[in-house]
Amino acid sequence: MQAILAREFGGPEVLELEELPDPAAGAGQVRVRIHAIGVNPYETYMRAGAYAIKPELPYIPGADAAGVIDQVGSGVTAWTPGDRVYISGTATHKAYGAYAQLVVCNQDQVHRLPRRISFAQGAGLFVPYVTAWRALFGRANVRAGDVVMIHGASGGVGSAATQFAVAAGATVIGTAGSDDGLALVRAQGARFAIDHRNTGYLDDITRVTGGRGPDVILEMLANVNLDHDLTVVAPGGRIVVIGNRGRVEIDARKIMTKDISVFGMALWGIPADEIRRAHDAIVAGLDSGALTPVVGTELPLAEAARAHRQVMEPGAKGKIVLLPDPGP
Ligand SMILES: NC(=O)c1ccc[n+]([C@@H]2O[C@H](COP(=O)([O-])OP(=O)(O)OC[C@H]3O[C@@H](n4cnc5c(N)ncnc54)[C@H](OP(=O)(O)O)[C@@H]3O)[C@@H](O)[C@H]2O)c1
């Protein structure tokens, strides 16, 4: 099979397409023929050797993908060859092993992919949607009637969070930094789409909430925005830090005087029972039509390095997806 292998840590150029032996499903495992692979920012941090999870070299990146089961190991009764699935990590590791034509997963790492969802869309389900669900419902306790600001709503996690929050009856304010991104945010059902490139855009957030501020903020770039979030959030508000790329200075007095709760979250630390609930919510939302992943860019698997450059550039518009050669 073809797979992307990193033989050393470094820049995007360390990602090379190689020919590797086909893996086989062991007991309690399934093998998935992969049709599409989702690219996430953390895969660039891991490739650079700067991530909390540091794989042994060489390694195959990626944890998000969708395809069709083509081999079932002994003891597996819930799945049969031909089933369409999306995966949440691989048997190699929950955070890598997926940039390949064939991937072996433990049977609880595959999830039914409804027919209305394409493989490219299914490749953007695990990391973005589980993260979004956990931030909204596991941390911020979002309920109908809340005003939820998604600070960075044009990317994978932000578009997933917008769909989940709208379906839960929240009013969503989503920010983006490009015209395409703003259009995408509106199309996901956000009531307000605000450009985070504009000086003074935080005043717009205060204005559209009638001076009160959002009840909840999901933050994709805390090192830039956390202190501003503390300024604009409503009294008693909840802020969830999802993304952060450096240090930040905050005025902690705002947390005290406004009775604010600041939560953090990391996908890899979510308790197993909560992960199960998140996947149940994802599959139910896909079935009902409440959730529809947005694919912005499709590239051949061989162009993984280009995808890693693009995912770190501004102007997000949903997911970047890699397509392996379909094979024989
Ligand atoms: N904690 C966790 O477990 C977890 C899980 C998944 C992801 N993450 C992190 O969460 C972040 C988002 O992930 P993703 O997959 O959605 O990435 P993505 O698809 O690349 O999207 C990035 C988002 O951040 C926005 N952004 C850029 N500059 C911003 C600014 N100054 N203020 C607010 N937003 C800004 C982008 O908007 P424009 O491009 O339109 O400017 C875009 O909406 C990443 O840092 C990722 O590493 C964390």
Count of discrete alpha- or pi-helical segments spanning 4 or more residues: 10
Q: What's the N-to-C terminus distance?
A: 10 Å
Main sheet makeup: 7 strands, mixed
**Can you give the helix content as a percent range?**
25-40%
Architecture per CATH nomenclature, i.e. the level-2 architecture of the largest domain? Alpha-Beta Complex
Overview of the molecule:
By secondary structure, the protein is α/β, with parallel strands linked by helices. The protein folds into 2 domains: 2-125 and 293-323, Medium-chain alcohol dehydrogenases, catalytic domain (Quinone Oxidoreductase, Chain A, domain 1), CATH 3.90.180; 127-268, 3-Layer(aba) Sandwich (Rossmann fold). The chain is built from 10 helices and 15 strands. Helix 8 links the parallel strand 12 and strand 13 (261-264). It is globular, with a radius of gyration of 20 Å.
Secondary structure layout:
Layout: E1 2-6, E2 15-19, E3 29-39, H1 41-47, E4 64-72, E5 84-88, E6 102-106, E7 110-112, H2 119-122, H3 126-139, E8 147-151, H4 156-167, E9 171-176, H5 179-187, E10 192-195, H6 201-208, E11 216-219, H7 222-232, E12 238-241, H8 253-257, E13 261-264, H9 272-288, E14 295-300, H10 304-311, E15 319-323
Parallel strand pairs: 8-9, 8-11, 9-10, 11-12, 12-13, 14-15
Antiparallel strand pairs: 1-2, 3-4, 3-6, 3-15, 4-5, 5-7
Helix pairs in contact: 3-4, 3-9
The structure holds NADP nicotinamide-adenine-dinucleotide phosphate.
